[in-house]
Design goal:
By secondary structure, the protein is mainly α. The chain is built from ten helices and three strands.
């Protein structure tokens, strides 16, 4: 089934995008998510924030001018804001959780989503450019809270249909775009109503790591192409 087949290539696309370094950052970020979910009242450290930002810059467009703002953050503020954000996330308040983290200097909705999507992958997807382009109504990139809420809501709808987490849907959409960008088969997103379907004219090649979650489904019609990067 196409969604799972696409997602199985995530690790391969990560390594093609940023080599061993990005793969290691991706694994470190996944481990951070497990750590946060295991703690009763979690918060993140500056080093952990910086690792997530390095992952984000490696996976997408690096915005090095943000480092001076990020490095001005005080650990106490990060403790307070991240704890409050995680509490809002646990209550299902997606907007509130994003807005709290975005109060930190240099942290916008995209960086906030990079953190929250590993803490509560059921509620949050990562704000990848490719996911924005696939699901945003006007197909343009934007990094506002409102655009994130629109895109994340659509990921949630798809996730409910597939029986996946919201974050897993975003991962599959990013992977599909990267396959096309690296000369792979021409993949499309079909979206209608409460879900989406990834379709392809041929089968996708599987990668060694199995998908992180269970279940799969295909739905939808109306085809919207992922733009080639």
């Amino acid at each position: 089934i196409i969604w799972a087949a696409i997602e199985q290539q995530y690790d391969l696309m990560i390594e093609k995008k940023g080599g061993v370094k990005l793969r290691q950052l991706d694994e470190t970020r996944e481990a951070l998510g497990k750590k946060l979910r295991s703690e009763k009242n979690p918060s993140i450290s500056l080093d952990e924030l910086f690792q997530v930002v390095q992952w984000k810059f490696g996976k997408g467009k690096a915005r090095h001018a943000l480092w001076k703002h990020l490095k001005s953050i005080q650990q106490k503020d990060l403790d307070d804001f991240s704890k409050e954000s995680f509490q809002k996330a646990n209550s299902g308040d997606v907007k509130g959780a994003i807005e709290i983290l975005a109060k930190l200097s240099g942290v916008g909705p995209a960086t906030a989503s990079a953190i929250l999507s590993i803490y509560r992958p059921d509620f949050f997807s990562f704000m990848d450019d490719e996911v924005i382009e696939a699901l945003n109504e006007d197909k343009k990139r934007g990094y506002t809270v409102n655009i994130y809420l629109e895109v994340n809501s659509k990921c949630q709808e798809i996730a409910r249909t597939l029986g996946w987490s919201c974050n897993r849907v975003g991962r599959a959409l990013w992977t599909a775009s990267q396959i096309l960008a690296t000369g792979g088969e021409d993949l499309t997103i079909s979206a209608k109503g409460n879900g989406s379907e990834l379709s392809s004219s041929s089968t996708t090649r599987k990668h060694k790591r199995p998908p992180r979650e269970e279940n799969d489904a295909t739905i939808g019609s109306d085809v919207t192409r992922i733009r080639k990067k």
